[in-house]
Write a structure and sequence with these properties.
Blueprint: E1 3-4, H1 8-18, E2 25-29, H2 34-43, E3 48-52, H3 60-65, H4 72-85, E4 90-92, H5 98-105, E5 110-113, H6 132-137, E6 142-143, H7 147-150, H8 155-166
Parallel strand pairs: 1-2, 2-3, 3-4, 4-5, 5-6
Length: 169
Amino acid sequence: DLKLHDIPNTVAGAAAAVADLTPDILTVHASGGPEMIRAAVDKLPQTLVAGVTVLTSLSAQDLDLLGVAGTPIDTVRRWAAMAVAAGAKALVCSPAEVAAVRGEVGEAIMLITPGVRPVGADAGDQRRIATAPQALADGADLLVIGRPITAAPDPAQAAATIAAEIHGH
């Protein structure tokens, strides 16, 4: 789960270093800016470069402390549009923003959505969450569901329960 966030030259070097592994997806932080994103896209033209917008663990107050103007949804939309303009073909955004991002970037961009939790599950360190069915209904293409499965007493049962939620059973 490598995520790159550095100056463009360093990201280009890191992307080149993983090229022989032929990753399907390479994740970069959109806050690194358009030149950094383009550096990754240019080094890995056959790889889907995914731009992480605002981490699901960050609240509006966290963004304010970081000096980021606007609400999380405004920031996510701005960074999503910038990342796509720089060549990203996928975006990572929380379920709270997935519908707005889908409206901003259209259907051709893959939306990867962490912060997915079953009904009643502990949010943990996630701030902007939703259920799997809600995230999919709002336009998510891929769901990232970690601890609700991996930290469950019975991970197989937890995964089956989430799958049943998705399929409406």
